[in-house]
Amino acid sequence: LAKTTQPISMDSYEGQEVNITCSHNNIATNDYITWYQQFPSQGPRFIIQGYKTKVTNEVASLFIPADRKSSTLSLPRVSLSDTAVYYCLVVTNSGYSTLTFGKGTMLLVSP
Amino acid sequence: GAVVSQHPSWVICKSGTSVKIECRSLDFQATTMFWYRQFPKQSLMLMATSNEGSKATYEQGVEKDKFLINHASLTLSTLTVTSAHPEDSSFYICSANPDRNLMAFFGQGTRLTVV
């Protein structure tokens, strides 16, 4: 399983764009990059998933360079409610593969 | 998106008793479900993989006789913490993937406190 590395914490202010970068040097051909958000005392919530280049949905964008050894989750114009832990995971496209959670990034959004 | 529901959301039990936690996929069938445990300020740790109609697969270091998993139907997996002790107090979370979907959906979690 590809190991991921992300910053332990990040601080931002309301209205700013936040970019959280994750490195996954050992990513394999069949692997996808997935990001989850977790609030205290709740289960993780899926944010976005991608394989290469750029993926955008109503919540975030995911940028993946050609070598796929890293990825960047971009949250546009964050609000206080975006304060949470964000996990970057590498998921293998081989049926029901288990998820290995790293330490995640604690994002604190201040007024 | 798909919905995974856990019950109860929180439970307090006495040391030595057993507690059952249910995980249901509400709008899809799941032949496989996953159980995680999360201690305060730590990440999720996979405990076991629950397989419908067969034995669960436990991660190294997880006692299968203490954490009993039953996956009797395509929409329900249960985790029973037997003879609970205070060190079993934690946040337990289940997840499931709709058929061959790379996207996992998580339950809301169950806060277990053993006193």
Task: Provide a compact summary of the structure.
The complex is a heterodimer of chains A (111) and B (115). Chain A has no helices and nine strands. Chain A is mainly β and 111 residues long.
- Spatial separation of the terminal alpha carbons of chain A: 38 Å
- Total of helices of chain B: 0
The Cα radius of gyration of chain B reads 13 Å
- Low-pLDDT windows of residues of chain B: none
Topology:
The complex is a heterodimer of chains A (111) and B (115).
Chain A: E1 9-13, E2 18-23, E3 31-38, E4 45-50, E5 53-56, E6 61-64, E7 70-75, E8 84-92, E9 105-110
Parallel strand pairs in A: 1-9
Antiparallel strand pairs in A: 2-7, 3-4, 3-8, 5-6, 6-7, 8-9
Chain B: E1 4-7, E2 10-13, E3 19-25, E4 32-38, E5 45-51, E6 57-58, E7 67-73, E8 76-81, E9 90-96, E10 105-106, E11 110-114
Parallel strand pairs in B: 2-11
Antiparallel strand pairs in B: 1-3, 3-8, 4-5, 4-9, 5-6, 7-8, 9-10, 9-11
Question: How would you characterize the overall build of this protein?
Answer:
The complex is a heterodimer of chains A (111) and B (115). Chain A contains no helices and nine strands. In chain A, 0% of the residues lie in helices and 49% in strands. The mean pLDDT of chain A is 93. Chain A is globular. In chain A, the strands form two sheets. In chain A, strands 1-9-8-3-4 form a five-stranded mixed β-sheet, with no helix packed on it. In chain A, strands 2-7-6-5 form a four-stranded antiparallel β-sheet, with no helix packed on it. By secondary structure, chain A is mostly beta strands. Chain B is mostly beta strands and 115 residues long. In chain B, 0% of the residues lie in helices and 50% in strands. Chain B is built from no helices and eleven strands. In chain B, strands 2, 4, 5, 6, 9, 10 and 11 form a seven-stranded mixed β-sheet that branches. Chain B has a four-stranded antiparallel β-sheet with strand order 1-3-8-7, with no helix packed on it. Chain B starts with a strand and ends with a strand. The mean pLDDT of chain B is 93. Classes of the chains: A mainly beta (111), B mainly beta (115). Chain A binds chain B through residues 32, 34, 36, 41-46, 49, 87, 91, 93, 95-96, 98-104, and chain B through 1, 4, 6, 31-32, 34, 36, 43-46, 49, 91, 93-95, 97, 100, 102-109, 111.
